[in-house]
């Protein structure tokens, strides 16, 4: 999941005309909206839970209510994912996210067992070990950059471990990921600059080459890792081809790293800002599963996903024309009072939490069990060791739109100084 994917492949810069929401979807993809999306989600919902407005690629439809989003997910033949192909510099459709059923279902059947809860459980210990190693590396520092020193390396190191790749490859791995996911930030150029697309394409070629070499290595031996499982997976007697394996690995790199980093960043920013809620997390480590679900709901790291209509239709009373892009604002539905009791309240004791943070329907997040494990272990182990922390005073966090992530998150560790009046900390 990347900003381009979440937003549907558009460049996201520039006003494309006067849609229902003063300037359309482009106006929703800003740092200010990403920092505090709730008021904008509510404003959109007042205009109707489905409405037409200018998208990033022409006239579009925006859904912000649960019923409409469920309908989009229910009819993947009508609301297709296939047209996203190529938005990340890839030369073939990414598996499974750029396929519609029935191909998509065939691939999911093959890959799902590798990411099933029982299969993922064995990674709990290695994940906890990595969390502690990263915290150990802070040494005696009282100030860290949470994004650079924790939330970025953690999912990448976990992924290298899962795939059975050497940890020395971490810098390469991060460079390849950033070259695909945020090429404009890497180059310091506007998203629509021709060099940005060229850089993304060159990085894509490197990614194919990197995984090609790794897969060559698996011909001789099959260590007990995720790649070996994929190599040996079979459906109806058929194994994945080399190209299919590459198209899966490419997607893992773009879908499985930034989303977890973004979740950690937005969750920890919330907990840093709300010491009384943080005290609950510290006091009740066994409630961590509920904490993670509630933070996934209220923070919704992936703001939206999109589809393309394959025929003229109607959604929640709103006309949709063939070929138009349809945006599903997951974050808005997760905060909608019509569907979630006391939606605005953050409650770690909810017994029912049917949030859409992982999407829904056939494309519902393949890595949700792994993501949950990473988030639960990370938050639990962190708070056992570091119950007190705060955003460095005077910092304005720059949350990127699409996937709500931070490049930099200056954090002070330890209790606030006694004279600091902001310490209404109940811990
Ligand atoms: C908290 C972290 C995560 C969040 C919030 C998240 C969110 C999502 C969402 C919203 C979708 C649906 C996309 C759509 O409908 O177009 C999705 C799909 C997907 N996610 Fe995740 N994700 C997370 C972590 C992961 C991880 C760790 C992996 C590991 C590989 C992963 C792999 C995938 C894949 C492969 C798909 C495509 C599934 C398909 O098309 O059938 N995700 N994710």
From TrEMBL:
Gene3D superfamilies: Cytochrome P450 (1.10.630.10). Keywords: Heme, Iron, Metal-binding, Monooxygenase, Oxidoreductase. InterPro entries: Cyt_P450 (IPR001128), Cyt_P450_B (IPR002397), Cyt_P450_CS (IPR017972), Cyt_P450_sf (IPR036396). Residues 1-21 are annotated as: Disordered. It comes from the Bacteria. Residues 7-21 have a biased composition (Gly residues). Pfam families: p450 (PF00067). GO terms for molecular function: heme binding; iron ion binding; monooxygenase activity; oxidoreductase activity, acting on paired donors, with incorporation or reduction of molecular oxygen. Belongs to the cytochrome P450 family. PANTHER family: P450, PUTATIVE (EUROFUNG)-RELATED. This is Cytochrome P450. It comes from Frankia nepalensis.
């Amino acid at each position: 999941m990347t900003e381009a994917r979440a937003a549907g492949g558009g460049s996201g810069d520039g006003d494309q005309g006067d849609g229902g929401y003063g300037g359309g979807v482009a106006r929703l993809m800003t740092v200010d909206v990403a920092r505090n999306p709730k008021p904008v989600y509510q404003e959109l919902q007042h205009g109707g839970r489905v409405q037409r407005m200018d998208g990033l690629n022409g006239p579009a439809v925006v859904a912000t209510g649960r019923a409409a989003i469920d309908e989009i997910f229910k009819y993947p033949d009508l609301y297709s994912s296939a047209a996203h192909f190529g938005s990340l510099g890839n030369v073939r459709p990414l598996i499974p996210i750029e396929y519609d059923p029935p191909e998509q279902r065939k691939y999911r059947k093959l890959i799902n067992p590798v990411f099933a809860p029982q299969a993922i459980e064995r990674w709990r210990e290695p994940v906890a070990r990595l969390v502690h190693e990263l915290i150990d590396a802070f040494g005696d520092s009282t100030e860290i950059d949470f994004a650079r020193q924790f939330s970025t390396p953690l999912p990448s190191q976990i992924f290298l471990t899962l795939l059975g790749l050497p940890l020395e490859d971490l810098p390469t791995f991060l460079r390849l990921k950033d070259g695909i996911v945020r090429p404009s930030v890497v180059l310091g150029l506007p998203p629509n600059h021709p060099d940005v697309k060229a850089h993304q394409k060159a990085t894509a070629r490197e990614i194919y080459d990197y995984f090609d070499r790794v897969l060559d290595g698996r011909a001789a031996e099959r260590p007990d890792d995720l790649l070996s499982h994929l190599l040996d997976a079979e459906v109806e007697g058929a194994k994945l081809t080399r190209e299919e394996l590459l198209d899966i690995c490419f997607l893992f790199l773009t879908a499985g790293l930034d989303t977890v980093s973004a979740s950690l960043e937005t969750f920890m920013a919330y907990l840093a800002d709300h010491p009384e809620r943080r005290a609950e997390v510290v006091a009740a480590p066994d409630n961590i599963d509920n904490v993670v679900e509630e933070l996934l709901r209220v923070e919704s790291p992936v703001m939206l996903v999109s589809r393309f209509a394959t025929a003229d239709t109607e959604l929640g009373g709103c006309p949709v024309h063939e070929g138009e892009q349809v945006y599903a604002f997951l974050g808005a539905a997760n905060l909608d009072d019509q569907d979630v009791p006391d939606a605005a309240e953050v409650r770690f004791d909810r017994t029912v939490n049917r949030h859409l943070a992982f999407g829904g329907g056939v494309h519902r997040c393949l890595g949700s069990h792994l993501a949950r494990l990473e988030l639960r272990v990370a938050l639990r182990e962190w708070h056992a060791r570091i119950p007190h922390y705060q955003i460095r005073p005077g910092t304005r966090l720059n949350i990127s739109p699409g996937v709500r992530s931070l490049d930099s998150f200056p954090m002070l560790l330890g209790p606030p100084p006694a004279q600091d009046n902001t310490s209404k900390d109940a811990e």
